[in-house]
Every structure is written in structure tokens, then in C-alpha cells.
Here is the input.
Amino acid sequence: KQLRLPSASAELALEDFQATWFSSDAGPRVDVEFRRKDAGSSEPVRIAILRDRQHHPPLTSWTLDSSGAPLPCSSLRSIVPSVAWLGDEATFQGILSVTHADAGPEVIVQGRLSKVDLDALVFQPFSQRCTGLAEVVVHRVEWRSGKIAEAAGEIDARDGEIGRSDSTYPAALNTGLRRSPSSAGRSFARRRITTS
Here is the structure.
């Protein structure tokens, strides 16, 4: 009952793997649970996949609950390629729910992202330079109709540097936020940003 899951940092060994199939008038459901062999936690990671046939058209939803043991984000790259923006060492511990609706996926996230590589996170989608590691506490993020509908959380970044990697700001950063010219190339020991 052991499986191995590829991850950017190392192969992830899983044990006590179980999968259960349920069938009802509402539709089929699959529950999966496993433990990370190296996590030292007795709590399993749980995944539930449900096909709701009572909704027209039918909806597929799944929930990942890794509250008991953090999972490497890189192990999800084949399903969610954008997790590469978090860096090879980033982990997620919490609950992620996805419902595939007519208007696109609806996503709700609550939990903690650890060891987020700010250089990968900021440089990948934009052309800015930001180094260091961050801990991100996600109180709640909701993604609907292709955009963030609600976000609340905290970012705690340490031992890094903020600066420009080129002379232009990308249009994607035109959010109404302002950046002080004096912050370019400035080091920081700790920055905390809270949203609500």
C-alpha cells in the first residue's frame, strides 16, 4: 500500500493509501486518503471527488484536505501548472475545494503556503525582482468567473530584496497600488502584508 508521487524537490512517498467508491442517486463519489511517509503525522491527507448529477448540467467537484501534513506544491504541477510560480520547495497545508461550473472553475482555498520563493512568484508572471522566502496564511481566497472574488490572508517575507529587473512596470501591475521609487533595490529583514 505504498505509492510514490513525483515532486520537484524529491519523490514523495505515500503510505496507507485507500480509495473508496460510493454510488447514489446524486451521483458517484470517490474518497481517497493517504499519509506522507516522511511527514511524521498520524493525520491522513484526504481527497474527495463528487459528480453531482442532480445539478443541470452535472457538476464535478473535488476537495483536497492536507490539514494533517503539508504537501509539496510541485507534486500538483501536472494538474495546476501555475504552482511552479511558488518555487520548488513550497508546501501547502490546508483545504482546497474546486467545483467545475459553467462559468469556469470555482475555487476556495484556506490554509498555509510555506517556503514560497518570492523570486519565482514575482518574476514568473511579471518582470520584477524580489528575493527571499515567504510564509502565506490564506484565511480565505475565492476564485470565480476567472478572477479573485474574495481574498483575506497574510504574507510574512524574510531575508530578501525588492527591486526592478528592467526599466518598465508591466501593465498587469496597474492595480492602483503605488510603489515608492526609494524601495527599488531595497533589502528587507521582514515584511508583513495583510489583506482583507
